[in-house]
Amino acid sequence: MTKLRMGVIGAGLWGTNHAHTFNVLPETELVAVCDIDEGRAQKMKESSGAAFALTDYEALVSRDDIDAVSVATPDFTHTPIILAALKANKHVLSEKPLATTVREAEKIVEAAAASRGKLMIDFHNRVNPILAQVRTMVQSGEIGVPRHGMARLSNTTFVPFEMLSWAAKSSALWFLGSHLVDVLRFILNDEVVRVYAVTRDGVLKAGGVDTRDFHLCILEFAGGAVVTMENSWILSPDNPSLVDFKLELVGDKGQIQADPTHNGGLRRMVEGGLRYSDYIGMTPTGETRIGGFVLESIGRFVDAVVRDAPLLADAMDGLANTKVLAAIEASAASGKAVDIA
Amino acid sequence: MTKLRMGVIGAGLWGTNHAHTFNVLPETELVAVCDIDEGRAQKMKESSGAAFALTDYEALVSRDDIDAVSVATPDFTHTPIILAALKANKHVLSEKPLATTVREAEKIVEAAAASRGKLMIDFHNRVNPILAQVRTMVQSGEIGVPRHGMARLSNTTFVPFEMLSWAAKSSALWFLGSHLVDVLRFILNDEVVRVYAVTRDGVLKAGGVDTRDFHLCILEFAGGAVVTMENSWILSPDNPSLVDFKLELVGDKGQIQADPTHNGGLRRMVEGGLRYSDYIGMTPTGETRIGGFVLESIGRFVDAVVRDAPLLADAMDGLANTKVLAAIEASAASGKAVDIA
Amino acid sequence: MTKLRMGVIGAGLWGTNHAHTFNVLPETELVAVCDIDEGRAQKMKESSGAAFALTDYEALVSRDDIDAVSVATPDFTHTPIILAALKANKHVLSEKPLATTVREAEKIVEAAAASRGKLMIDFHNRVNPILAQVRTMVQSGEIGVPRHGMARLSNTTFVPFEMLSWAAKSSALWFLGSHLVDVLRFILNDEVVRVYAVTRDGVLKAGGVDTRDFHLCILEFAGGAVVTMENSWILSPDNPSLVDFKLELVGDKGQIQADPTHNGGLRRMVEGGLRYSDYIGMTPTGETRIGGFVLESIGRFVDAVVRDAPLLADAMDGLANTKVLAAIEASAASGKAVDIA
Amino acid sequence: MTKLRMGVIGAGLWGTNHAHTFNVLPETELVAVCDIDEGRAQKMKESSGAAFALTDYEALVSRDDIDAVSVATPDFTHTPIILAALKANKHVLSEKPLATTVREAEKIVEAAAASRGKLMIDFHNRVNPILAQVRTMVQSGEIGVPRHGMARLSNTTFVPFEMLSWAAKSSALWFLGSHLVDVLRFILNDEVVRVYAVTRDGVLKAGGVDTRDFHLCILEFAGGAVVTMENSWILSPDNPSLVDFKLELVGDKGQIQADPTHNGGLRRMVEGGLRYSDYIGMTPTGETRIGGFVLESIGRFVDAVVRDAPLLADAMDGLANTKVLAAIEASAASGKAVDIA
């Protein structure tokens, strides 16, 4: 079997997950890593065993010994990289969100249609085992017609203040809401047609991170379902987990509650209080397999390229997602509900 | 000590709680009960040991041997009874909501100001031990400035379909939202200034109860806090409790989560699945004391009349409450956010 | 009504609860307080408004203006005080455990039989609203015949290391196991006939408190039920509550789980991590009523004396309790199961 | 790469998991299936695509085109099959428990030592992502020295009454306790040296399944830790999951609580009450990968054979496990604690 030759762009936390996965999967070979910071690129080359380290993504996507690239750079930098890679007819796995403006996302959709490369967005919650089951239940009619719901995907202040260097260039809406809007579209198999949102700032700005504290909104879907959504970056650092992810749907025949992060399946009480550990995102496996939905999602991209399996999320999903997030921002700015064409 | 002579109007579930309380408290004496259905009135007279049973509230409030009355009739019938009682200078303990239109609530505010009787609204969640603590925490600054929150007070379909005979004349918004809006005003010690709401119908109508299935809304408070609120009557009957009450507030110094009904403090697994039993609403006591916050609230009315203690919730609270609920209905009807003067 | 004239012996945390209750209940009058530490006695006299402060319990129980006394001193000091009070024909409300040896408990049983005073043990969990419901469910046959169960009543190290000055003279078994054994006897309405126990020490001793870390045991009841019981004083201080109380019973028709302390009905995330607040032990009331099961239990003693209501727990309950705890210690020492006559 | 040629013995629920895994893993090829019931064997051959279906395990293990076998037959039938396979120098993956008597387990240990085949016991909870983390935490010293704990692995009556055809030939102790004892040995990296147990029967016998209802026991480990353990088959069928798995360890520096099955990460409320769905045992993956710890464990056997990775659990683990279970039965029969050599 000829292996898929991979390049990973972005040598941060997530790029490392991509590199690890391409090293483990039997169908792929990690060839090159790329980061604008040469030191980071070099360091990742060494830790991952990639053959090359580059600082210029253009140089990477033009190489003949690369079949496909992962884009794991900050949200707002995705577009030119993806466009360049698609133009070079490389397959692309992009971290979420696809892009941070509708215009950019539309360009990418066009470029994807014109390219011989496939484009997948790494909406890994589509293979989160809890949420994948919720989708199956909903799509099989187990809860009947979904009528209303509530969804939270929020972080403690640790994320904007300590984890993300580029928090001020993003927000809980783009960083977390992009996941949550996709999860809702995926589970309901439906599109958002109208949003109303309220936002506030102050806490993060006071802490030196110039972005919104949170967005609260109400999403109306074409099929009639109505869902409240919270994306906040100011949850207390005393939360038992740095992410609180909850989703609940009420249908006319039943109800489902998903709590991937605060369920207490694993509770740790050591110096520093009660903490809930993650046990589904990344899980231990033998050295020739990947474990956990975060890596499984990357594996699905390989399936799509190598075996022509369906893309987990394609460019149109990325565009629809961006449209909803942009509409939420527009609603929060205007104080009026916004319809999505 | 001369005992406060009480009349209870409305011989349903809640009127029975009032009657029991007035029988137990040392400061009160249950004199009369009243219901438009003579059979029910008579039956309650017998079970409660009241001296009289009447079918006409006008007759009750005009009696000289009555000092105070409880109004425990359906929501939409409160206004004329309260007005009559206040006009007769009786003290009045009214079940919530005070009234179902702003105009009615305003009339009651005027009548209360003109009467020698005191008027209290039985917003018993103000003495719910969980929520009372939340208020204390918030008002003491423990979580800093409240920034955002989420609140749910919803019922399974059991309530509109089987428990309430007059569900079609009310809705989850009026029946449950009245509690929740009051709890939020009480805890935040703040007023709602703007609301946006979405409502849907279909499930209850299909089941023969002609009212709304739910209201989802976003409440903005004068002090800046923003809260999503759900009031639904279509939760699955398979829920472990027929009521799901949750409240969470995120401040700039901390966070509080209250879950008075679904916390699993008492889980019962017998024929029919897993159920969570209530243990704070009504609790066992010796025969000369009342137990649980539902009865404590009634006791607070007696304190206010007998010892001039502060009213737990007064006519202005009832008016503010009604204004918010009416604004939610207006927003849901118009599709636009509504400001509250 | 002539008021019951009360003396409270022991001016610690719990004595304060007794004093407060006797000040609030309409049937009682707090006359005197007593503590071997004169400063504490005097301070409590001032805060409680009692007429007298004494340092000698003999002097207290011989006064003619005292009808009844509360014994709220450390566990191991109860016996002589109770005996003196009963000999003086005073009514006695004793904190738990009644006594710390079977011989002492037997003497008290004899003295109670010979006295004109009534003796109640303050096993307040009998009126814990969660556990009271569990008893009702079990005794009504709701779970059928109880077959097996598990019970935990344990504390974090905060209690032996920081809260209790006399921890070295007690243990989790006597301090907490006394409650739990009583709760099990009460709920099952049955007697323990055989115990096996294992104990260890080391953590508390290393921290300067010379007592056992925990006892784990298996209790067999006359009616056939078998229950594992844990009483530990070395839970992590990072627990969300300083007490972890859980009780579960499996019957042949159903199952009940009670979680009075770790249920998360009220979760507080402020400086210092996630904490679960108590909301059923003591709850807010108007100033003329008591609230919460901790005070209700004291009220039941007054009911028993003033209205001849049944004692919540009598001397025989105290004796049976002490027998079980002593047998657990004997089993842990011998490594063999111990039968209780 | 030459593929490992597999035979699966036992065409029940678990054998199907083995067959599926060997079909998916790139290193293995499912060659034959075997069941004493010819119809079942034939059916599994068809569904799995195996080349052969046999009814005689001796015939299977003597084939030259088979490198390794899975033993997924009922507990009490393992020994002769394993012995035959080892004698034929095949690699063996045995379902748990290894054997149901110490003597049998000892024979297997000898046979494994003499064979060129490797023997692994499928204690899949060693790769349960929650429990694997608990082991890592404990072995890294995160909770300090483990002092006491509690462990439950129990089923509702659904398992003995409806799921297992051979329940009367096993018990909750052998079926579930085998897992739990292994998990405790694995996490603590320590051996049980003394047990005391109580058992009862009645409920299952009344329902026509002639075995014990439950075993409750106290396990003492060589390193000093003491753990209560419950294995019951009579939990209420109204439980939200048919298995209740909980494990808690208290160390002198911290505490861990694991709740793999009742954590409510995914709650389903549809016809029939509230149910918690599994989301870690088996999880969705692309068609060339396995997902969930139940299958990962089978993958570890392949790793051990193909890459000489360490066995997840070997014959000595199986023997130690059987010794503890046998000692528990001996203690329950004698009423005395039993030391394990």
Automatic annotation (TrEMBL), chains A, B, C, D:
Keyword Cytoplasm: no
Superkingdom of origin: Bacteria
Keyword field contains Transcription: no
Protein name: Gfo/Idh/MocA family oxidoreductase
Entry keyword set: Oxidoreductase
GO MF term list: nucleotide binding; oxidoreductase activity
Domain annotation Gfo/Idh/MocA-like oxidoreductase N-terminal: ranges: 4-122
Residue span, GFO/IDH/MocA-like oxidoreductase domain: 132-256
